[in-house]
Amino acid sequence: MINKQLEQITKNIIERSKPTREAYLERITNHKGKIQRKDLGCANLAHAYASIPNYMKEKIKENKESNFAIISAYNDMLSAHQPFKNYPDILKQELFKNRAFGQLAGGTPAMCDGITQGYEGMELSLFSRDVIAMSVAIALSHNVFDGAFYLGVCDKIVPGLLIGALSFGHLPSIFIPSGPMTSGISNDEKSKMRQLFAAGEISRDKLLESEMKSYHDVGTCTFYGTANSNQMLMEFMGLHLPNSAFINPNTPLREALVKQAAAHMAQHQVKPIGELLSEKNIINAIIGLMATGGSTNHTIHLVAIARAAGIIINWDDFDALSSITPLLARVYPNGKADVNQFQAAGGLAFIINELLENGLLYEDVETIMGRGMRDYTKEPFLINGKLHYQEGTKTSQEESILRSIKNPFSQDGGVKILRGNIGRAVIKTSAIKEEHQIIQAPAIVFHSQQEFLQRFQNKELQKDFIAVLPYQGARANGMPELHKLTPSLGVLQDQGFKVALITDGRMSGASGKVPAAIHISPEALLNGNIAKIQDGDMLILDAKNGRLEALIDEQEWKNRKPSKFDKKETFGYGRELFAGFREQSSNAETGAMSFGGYFK
C-alpha cells in the first residue's frame, strides 16, 4: 500500500507536468519514424562503417541486426573513469556474441571537482554538465544506432549523459558504472587531518600523505558525495543492472556485469529511455536521495534531468518527500562509513526492499529489466564463473551504517528548503547536530572564498557569525562549489563559535556538519535579496523550522539597494568560452541549465 502523502505528491507532479510530458512523448514518438540506419544513403552508411572490421561489415550492411552506440566519459585523469578504458571492447565483443554490434560513438569530457575545488577551473564545473549533454547529442546525431550504453560516474557526468540521452528518448539506454575504489584511510581520519591543517597544526606534507591514503586507487571516491549519489539514483530510476553501483573496479564480478549489460540489451526489449523514465521513476530517485542522505547537488541536477523528460519538479517536492522519507543510512559525510562498508552492510538492495515493504517507493515502474523495482532488491554474485542474482539481505548487517524503517537514524531525509526574506535555499541537515540547526548571528559578507580563507588565517573570525557569499550563482561565475570553506568553518564550530554559511553557490555532495544555506534562489545576479545583506545585519538560519531571514525592519529591507556585482575575471582557464552558458542560465530552482528556456 503506497503512502497516502506520497500518492498526493505524485498526483501533483503528474498534473503539473501533463502538458510538457505529453509534448515530450509526442516528440520522441514522431522521431521514431524519421531517418534510421536502413534509410541512409549508401555513401552515408559507408562512412559509418568504414572503420569497423571486415567480418562485421558483411553482417552490419544487411541492417538486420541491432547496432548500439557506446558513449564514454573515459579518461585516466579521473580515478572513477579510468576503469572505462576497456569497457567498449568488452561490450562490442559481447554484443557480437549476441548477434548485435557496438561502436564507440563518442566521448564526453569529465572533470573532477575534487581537483578544481577552490580554484578557477571550478567555475566550469556546473556547465560541464551541459557540454556533456551536447556531446551526447553529437555522438548520436549520425542516426545509425538502435540504442546506447553510457559510461560515466562522477558529479556532472551522469546528469549530463542522462540529459543527452533524453534528447534521444526514442533509444533504449543502459548506464554502466565503474564502481568505488577500495577503502583507504577512514573518512573520519581524513576530515580530522584537514581540520588540523586548517588550524595550522600539521604540515602540508602530512596533509598530502593523508589525502593520498584516502584517494589511492582507481574507482570512485569512497565518501557518499555526488558521484556515489549519482550511482544510487541510476539504480532507483532503473537504469543500471540491479545493484551494480558499488562493485569495485577490476574484479571478475565487475567485468561480468559489463558483459551482462551488453547481453541484456541485445537479448531483451529494453524500453526507450524517454518512455521508461516517468514521473514515478523521478520520484523514486528523490526518495532514494532522502533515504540515503545523498548530495544536495541533486536538488539542481534532478530538476534538470526531469525537465529534459518533460517532467516538472521543484524544491517544494524535495521538501515534501524529505518529510515522509526516513533516513536509513549513515555514510560519510553523514556518518563514518564509506560506500564499501555501506555495500557490505546491505547496500541499496536492503534500502530498496525497506522502502518497497513500507509503501515509500513505487514498484510499478519500468526499468531496463522490465516492469517493477523488485529486481533491485537482488544482488549479483559470480558463482562458478557465471553471474547469478540472489535476494539481498533483509536485515542490516551493521546498525551504525544501515537501519530499518522501524528504527531510522532520523524520521526525515535531511534535505530541507529554507524560506524567508533572503530567498529560498537548500540545506542538508542529516550531518548537522541538533544544537547547530538554529543559528542567529551577525553577517560577515565575503567577496570570495579566498577572502574568507585569508581572514581565517589572520585569526579575524574567532566569533559568532554567518558567512555570506553572494554572486556565486550560475549567472555570476558558474556556481562553483565552496567546499574549501568546510574545514575552516568546522574548526570555528569546534572552538565553540556559532557559525553558518549563506550563499547562492554550491557546497558539494560533501556538505557536512556546519549549517549551510546554499543555492539561494533567486541568485544575487538575478536580483536576489542575498545581495542586500550587509556586514553586521542580524540573520537567522533555522533549519528546524525552514526559516532564513535578515532580521531587518521590513520597510528598510524593501528600500535597501543590493551590493554591486564586482565582475570577476572571466578570462583564463577557459572561462571566456563559457560566457554564453552563464548569460543564458536558468536559476537553481529550475536546474541552472544554459538551455533551460527550451524545457518549459
Q: Structural class of the helices, strands and pairings?
A: alpha/beta
The biggest beta sheet reads:
8 strands, mixed
Strand order of the largest sheet: 9-10-14-13-12-11-15-16
Strand segment tally: 16
- Mean pLDDT score: 93
Query: How much strand content do the residues show?
Result: 5-15%
Estimated radius of gyration: 24 Å
Indicate the percent of residues in helices. 25-40%
Number of helical segments?
22
Low confidence ranges: none
Task: Describe it.
Helix 6 runs parallel beside helix 7 (157-167). It contains 22 helices and 16 strands. The protein is 38% helix and 14% strand. By secondary structure, the protein is an alpha/beta fold. It is globular. It folds into 3 domains: 4-34 and 65-182 and 217-391, no CATH class; 183-216, no CATH class; 415-566, IlvD/EDD C-terminal domain-like (Glucose Oxidase, domain 1, 3-Layer(bba) Sandwich), CATH 3.50.30. [4Fe-4S] cluster binds at residues 154, 221. One of its GO terms (molecular function) is metal ion binding. It catalyses: 6-phospho-D-gluconate = 2-dehydro-3-deoxy-6-phospho-D-gluconate + H2O. Catalyzes the dehydration of 6-phospho-D-gluconate to 2-dehydro-3-deoxy-6-phospho-D-gluconate.
